[in-house]
């Protein structure tokens, strides 16, 4: 894929992180993976976040070795403060974080019980001494690790490997695409194959993701105008990408003369040269989006069927007229 013809990639530094100060709608937050004790095992390795992308998250906290003091006799809650940075010496993430803390013991459903939750950028909790599973989400980026609470103040800072991704697309030749006809899907590689990270992402929407490599699908319309690529999201940076579509919007008209008024109540079908039906509609002036290629349009009016072969090239919207008087 040539950089200028198919993909423009710009990487900008966050600086003071104004984009990361935007409020996060929790309905868009990545789902919490169902953690199991065997996935963590009391080690210092972060649990899989579910998207399979990005390097390990670093936790600044107590030693996680096996020879830890036994505080089981202390049941009084202890103060716990959780915060996150984008880099070791970078500023704290000011807002948009969702913290969840789980017990390491499973409940009656076989899942780890949620014992605390906070939507403050710097979470202030009270937890009895012991071992917990800590999960933090920032948009669709997330990380998990073991949390040890000891008597006295407990302060933990995550160095969160998070970046931003903003996507857009144009038709080859720099023809704009209406935003309502354009959507993106984002995928990553998980331990069990490809994982859907986000679907139906609008153009120019800023998405927060774990740093790593993602597969991107750009969909122009709902038929066959699809472009795919891979992008790397760097921690503490915004990646902006423009994908180029080789397609065009097509409007269909059945007329009795060149440039005449479109006839109503026509049953339309568009087929590929292989005979596959890729579009069907009823009306006087249906529109769709088609990738570059050759097609056959069929217009059924009553008992009569009219057809025309046509070619789509990337560019501005075009009309395809079928004349009834030709038949």
What does this protein look like?
This protein is mainly beta. The longest helix is centred in the first third of the chain and has 4 residues. The two termini are 44 Å apart. The chain is built from two helices and 24 strands.
Question: Based on CA inertia axes, which overall geometry fits?
Answer: elongated
**So what's the oligomer here?**
single chain
For the CA atoms, what is the radius of gyration? 27 Å
How large is the share of residues in beta strands? over 45%
Helix content: under 10%
Query: Mind describing the biggest β-sheet?
Result: 5 strands, mixed
Return residue spans where pLDDT drops below 50 for at least 5 consecutive residues. 1-65
Count, helices: 2
Instruction: Kindly state the number of beta strands.
Output: 24
Class from helix and strand fractions = mainly beta
SSE order in H/E notation?
A: HEHEEEEEEEEEEEEEEEEEEEEEEE
N-to-C CA distance: 44 Å
**Overall pLDDT level:** 82
In brief:
The chain is an all-beta fold.
Protein traits:
mainly beta, 4-stranded mixed beta sheet, 5-stranded mixed beta sheet, 327 residues, elongated, 24 strands, disordered N terminus
SSE layout and pairing:
Elements: H1 3-6, E1 7-13, H2 37-40, E2 58-60, E3 78-85, E4 97-106, E5 112-118, E6 123-127, E7 130-138, E8 141-149, E9 154-159, E10 162-171, E11 175-176, E12 182-190, E13 193-201, E14 206-210, E15 212-220, E16 225-233, E17 237-245, E18 247-255, E19 266-271, E20 277-283, E21 287-291, E22 293-301, E23 304-312, E24 318-323
């Amino acid at each position: 894929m040539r950089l200028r013809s198919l993909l423009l990639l710009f990487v900008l530094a966050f600086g003071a992180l104004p984009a990361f100060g935007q409020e996060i709608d929790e309905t868009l937050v990545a789902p919490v993976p169902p953690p199991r004790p065997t996935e963590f095992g009391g080690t210092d390795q972060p649990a899989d976040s579910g998207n399979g992308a990005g390097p390990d998250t670093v936790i600044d906290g107590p030693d996680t070795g096996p020879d830890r003091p036994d505080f089981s006799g202390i049941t009084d809650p202890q103060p716990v403060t959780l915060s996150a940075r984008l880099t070791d010496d970078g500023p704290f993430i000011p807002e948009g974080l969702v913290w969840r803390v789980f017990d390491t013991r499973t409940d009656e459903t076989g899942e780890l019980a949620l014992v605390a939750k906070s939507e403050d950028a710097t979470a202030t909790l009270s937890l009895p001494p012991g071992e917990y599973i800590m999960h933090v989400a920032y948009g669709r980026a997330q990380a998990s690790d073991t949390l040890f609470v000891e008597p006295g103040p407990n302060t933990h800072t995550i160095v969160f490997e998070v970046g931003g991704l903003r996507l857009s697309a144009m038709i080859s030749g720099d023809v704009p695409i209406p935003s309502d006809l354009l959507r993106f899907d984002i995928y990553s590689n998980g331990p069990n194959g490809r994982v859907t990270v986000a679907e139906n992402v609008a153009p120019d929407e800023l998405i927060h993701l774990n740093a790593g490599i993602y597969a991107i699908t750009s969909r122009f319309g709902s038929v066959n105008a699809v472009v795919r690529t891979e992008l790397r999201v760097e921690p503490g940076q915004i990646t902006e990408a423009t994908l180029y579509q080789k397609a065009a919007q097509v409007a269909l008209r059945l007329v009795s003369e060149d440039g005449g008024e479109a006839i109503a109540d026509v049953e339309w079908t568009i087929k590929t040269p292989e005979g596959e039906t890729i579009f069907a509609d009823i009306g006087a002036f249906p529109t769709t989006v088609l990738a570059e290629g050759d097609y056959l349009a069929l217009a059924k009016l009553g008992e009569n069927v009219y057809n025309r072969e046509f070619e789509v090239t990337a560019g501005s919207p075009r009309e395809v007229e079928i004349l009834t008087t030709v038949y």
